[in-house]
Write a structure and sequence with these properties.
- The chain has 249 residues and is mostly helical.
- It has helices spanning 12-34, 37-83, 88-98, 108-122, 127-138, 141-156, 160-209, 215-218, 221-244.
- It is elongated, with a radius of gyration of 25 Å.
- The relative contact order is 0.09.
- The model has no long low-confidence stretch (mean pLDDT 85).
């Protein structure tokens, strides 16, 4: 069954990951800021509902990045096959055979190639139709651009070999650029997360080295308000850093 790359099926494993991380983070936060594990459970519940959509969005972006890089490799084999006179249907089938030594049958692009070849052979579907369906489900502009180039060549009678070769070079360079940008943003996100855990590390150090130093913040209502305000500022800074470092294809 062909997957929709804009939808993430939230499995029991995903639920366990998000729940475990939320419970651990909430419990530690409740202990560090309030010295009360009961409040930590309440924070865990809030973190779970905040983390679930973010986790799903991260998984979707990760899956799309993997598909995009695999599609970049397939582009070159398609271009080579078309340049020696193969049709698009033959190019897709040869690409599937060519990349079997590199990609596993469970890899995204191999599943897509197998599905497209099967639809063309068994269902007599047109190559343009299966490519359009794949591009629409992927939600990736680079794949949509390639299909658009191929469709324009088919309808206008332009030189298919030159057009696909040119499109492959441009799209491949753009994918490489996007990959480099993502690597830079990932580095910035890592630096931001180091800064994010600094307040928690400082509180942990004070809890261990001087347990009574933070007692005024947890023993009175005024101290609890100060702790809440500090936690709110930390949460706001985390959201701001994540927003600034957000990068989508």
């Amino acid at each position: 069954m062909c997957r929709n790359y804009g939808i993430w099926d939230f499995s029991l494993l995903d639920l366990g990951v998000v729940l475990t991380v939320s419970l651990a983070a909430g419990t530690v936060t409740g202990w560090l800021f309030y010295d009360r594990l009961q409040l930590g459970l309440c924070i865990s519940g809030a973190l779970f509902f905040m983390a679930k959509p973010r986790y799903m969005r991260w998984q979707l972006q990760r899956r799309k990045r993997i598909l995009l890089l695999q599609f970049r490799d397939v582009l070159y084999s398609i271009s080579s096959a078309v340049s020696v006179g193969r049709s698009m249907a033959q190019a897709l089938e040869e690409s599937m055979d060519f990349w079997k030594g590199t990609y596993d049958e469970k890899d995204l692009i191999m599943r897509e190639l197998a599905a497209m070849v099967r639809q063309m052979k068994e269902g007599n579907a047109r190559d343009l139709d299966v490519l359009k369906a794949f591009a629409g489900r992927s939600g990736l502009q680079d794949i949509l651009d390639f299909v658009m180039v191929y469709e324009n060549c088919r309808t206008s009678g332009a030189d298919l070999v030159k057009a696909i070769d040119r499109a492959t070079g441009i799209i491949g360079d753009r994918i490489d650029l996007e990959r480099e940008l993502h690597m830079l943003m990932a580095q910035k996100q890592f630096e931001g997360r180091i800064i994010m855990i600094s307040p928690f590390a400082l509180l942990l150090f004070l809890k261990i080295s001087s347990p009574g130093f933070l007692e005024p913040l947890t023993a009175s209502s005024a101290g609890m308000m100060v702790s809440t305000a500090a936690l709110g500022l930390v949460a706001a800074s985390v959201l701001l850093m994540e927003r600034v470092n957000q990068f989508e294809f």
